[in-house]
Design brief:
The complex is a heterodimer. By secondary structure, chain A is an alpha/beta fold. Chain A is built from 13 helices and twelve strands. Classes of the chains: A alpha/beta, B alpha+beta.
Amino acid sequence: MKICIIGFGTVGRGIVELIHRKNIDLDVVAICGRNACVYDKNGINLTHLIKHTKDIPIEKYSKADKNLDTMKIIDMKCADVYLELTPTDIEHAEPGYSFIKKILSTGSHVVTSNKGPSVLHYNELKSMAEKNNVEFLYEATVGGSMPVLNLARETLRGNKIQSIRGILNGTTNYILTRMAAEGAPFQQILKEAQELGIAEKDPTYDVDGIDAAAKAVILANEFFSRNSTMKDVDITGITKITPEFVSLAKKSGFKVKLIVEVSEKKLKVAPRLIKKNHPLAVDGTLNALNLKLDMANEMTVVGYGAGKYETAAAVISDILSIKN
Amino acid sequence: MRLSIEVMPKDVPGELIRILTPITDVGGNIITVIHKRDELSVKGMLPVHLTLELENKKQFERILERYKNDNISLLKIDELRCFDEITVGIIGHIVRTDLSDTIDSIDSLGFCKVTDLQIDMPEKKMESCAIFRIELDNSVNDAHAHIISRIKQICMKKDIQIVEVA
């Protein structure tokens, strides 16, 4: 199966390394950066690529062609599956949205880790995929390597999901965990998280609950056909949580976590008190999701929601499910 | 839910265990046991007042079934009151915005009361925080939702953040 990678950042590199390391039977025929692309119809030499792009953007790779751009690569229809891995833009979903629309219209499959298009154009893109008889998969957009969408679609087939709630942002979970453990203030822990690469330079998406809300919208549209947008989510971030409050909560037998809640009637992201022995009370950068089901009663999944290889694993899982 | 009942066992060794076992067997929690020794009957029966914590009414029905099978008399109770408890956190200038008013506003609903309050006030200009335990009468429809709605109203008015239990 031939794949094209659009966006050679952390996740793109993770995918290439995993395909190479595990000798997964996938041919990477194209990699697209902002201003240049690498293309080889017989498959790019991943050993050479990995060795020579360690610390440089794909545009500076010796085999990058500045005459090629993403739209031209899509027009060439050179891949069976296109991986849209450009950064999430929750306001306009670009350039991911334009890329995905073009790919689907040319009759190729799309796998993405980019939340923007799924949040802002869910129904449109799902309809396009269906109309063109191709797959539009986005497991990596919710919970990273923690199985959520595929779990519900495949393994829990036949079950009606009644509600979903849990932790879907590793950055805020890390911050709240450390506040509880050390009693340190929010700003201090945030600064350290940024230095460790756990929080972005602009952490607003995470700490204001926007990232978690985007995932809530995807879940709401996927499992409750709600046609929701970001405006429908009741969002409260963690910036007002104080170390004194986290400490009080601890003394009362609770942890403080940023919890997403999705159901037919509820769409909310807010810091909540969770009993310390509750299955959702996971620490560090872990994500956890509890599903209430009409047949299987209840289920909780726990895993790493972000990370180079964790997110890459989710993308590869989607590719392989198309292949099979 | 929390409830109080009175049973009438004989005042002989082993009777107390007979009363308490059905409760623990269903997974209930025994909060208090009071022997009402001043009410010892002429037949040697001694009323025992129990406060229990159960997850639901079904557990209570199972206890009653066991009492019936074991010939344990349940005294006639005029009113069966079930209490539940919720925990809520708040963060903000909660003292400056009149904490006693906040508590009174919750209590004034009539079917609940603030039974425990833990508060942390760092330095004067910094925001404080508190965790309330509120006991509510389970027999009132949507009691939980009404209380949370009242607290949210108060918090919005006083620019305080509410943190509910998930």
